[in-house]
Structure to design on (340 residues):
């Protein structure tokens, strides 16, 4: 697949973001259903992931409109999701104080890349405020606050905090952030890497069963390679290759779709687009033309309809939904950007 086709998909998605923001002054959960928009129930995540999308789109294609739309979206997001009187962020406009590490991580992640292009003190101060919140409420407490009722921690939010720290380090080259990145991965090693398989489990070791999500193992492999490109020696290339090789052997269906997790029934599984995009991202990063071509063909054949992404398919490749989610663009551009 040539880059023009990747761009065609990104163009279509970007146009939906622009249309949605210009219509509603925020990004709704679903981009193609203007008659079922509930502002009060719309997540902060839909805003932050699209700040990132718009800036990456600008970086790739020099579209000035996207760059300045990202800044407008940031300012409007603060109006909608930050309470200046109480001094806290909210997951939804109608929510109380934010206590979701996943949402905090994407705030830091998106604001960091925005700061790179605008260098505004307001954005920098927001990032520092968010770091203080995360250190105080999550890191200093050993991530106790994200445990479920049985004391189990899911690695997903911590992975995205790692990604956010990496983006901030990319922008600032901060020594203290470099140290925090290394310390954060030591938490992953301690709590989630199974010494027998050397794979990254989805839940901490005290979970009643070991669950592996192929999509997150591909994603971790890419993040660790990006760390190395920034001069951070977090893990070896051999470790990344082991993660991916294991998922290639165990994590693909008969038609080549990435399983939601290992050891599930293929017939009854729902196959989301994002794990397949994370697989493609890794192979584009490593210049594996054969594997990236195969992954691309699967994505184009089964996960797009008229240039728009399909979120879920079944084991035969049949679409299970036609709704276009506002959070999917983050995965689209994270993967496709590696082709340019």
């Amino acid at each position: 697949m040539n880059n023009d086709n990747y761009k065609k998909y990104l163009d279509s998605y970007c146009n939906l973001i622009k249309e949605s923001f210009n219509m509603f002054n925020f990004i709704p959960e679903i981009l193609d259903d203007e008659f079922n928009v509930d502002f009060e129930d719309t997540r902060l995540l839909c805003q932050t992931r699209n700040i990132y999308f718009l800036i990456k789109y600008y970086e790739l294609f020099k579209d000035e409109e996207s760059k300045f739309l990202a800044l407008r979206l940031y300012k409007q997001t603060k109006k909608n999701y930050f309470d200046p009187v109480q001094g806290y962020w909210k997951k939804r406009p109608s929510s109380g104080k934010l206590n979701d590490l996943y949402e905090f991580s994407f705030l830091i992640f998106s604001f960091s890349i925005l700061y790179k292009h605008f260098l505004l003190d307001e954005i920098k101060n927001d990032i520092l405020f968010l770091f203080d919140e995360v250190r105080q409420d999550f890191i200093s407490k050993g991530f106790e606050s994200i445990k479920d009722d049985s004391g189990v921690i899911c690695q997903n939010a911590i992975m995205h905090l790692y990604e956010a720290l990496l983006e901030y380090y990319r922008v600032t080259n901060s020594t203290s952030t470099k140290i925090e990145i290394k310390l954060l991965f030591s938490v992953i090693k301690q709590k989630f890497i199974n010494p027998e398989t050397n794979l990254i489990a989805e839940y901490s070791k005290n979970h009643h069963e070991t669950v592996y999500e192929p999509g997150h193992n591909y994603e971790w492999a890419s993040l660790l390679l990006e760390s190395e490109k920034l001069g951070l020696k977090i893990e070896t290339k051999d470790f990344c290759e082991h993660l991916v090789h294991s998922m290639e052997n165990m994590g693909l269906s008969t038609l080549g779709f990435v399983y939601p997790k290992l050891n599930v029934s293929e017939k009854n599984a729902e196959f989301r687009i994002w794990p397949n995009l994370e697989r493609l991202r890794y192979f584009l990063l490593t210049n594996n033309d054969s594997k990236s071509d195969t992954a691309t063909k699967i994505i184009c054949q089964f996960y797009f309809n008229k240039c728009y992404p399909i979120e879920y398919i079944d084991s035969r490749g049949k679409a299970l939904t036609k709704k276009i989610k506002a959070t999917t663009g983050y995965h689209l551009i994270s993967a496709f950007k590696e082709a340019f």
In short: The CA atoms of residues 102 and 157 lie 4 Å apart. The longest helix spans residues 3-24.
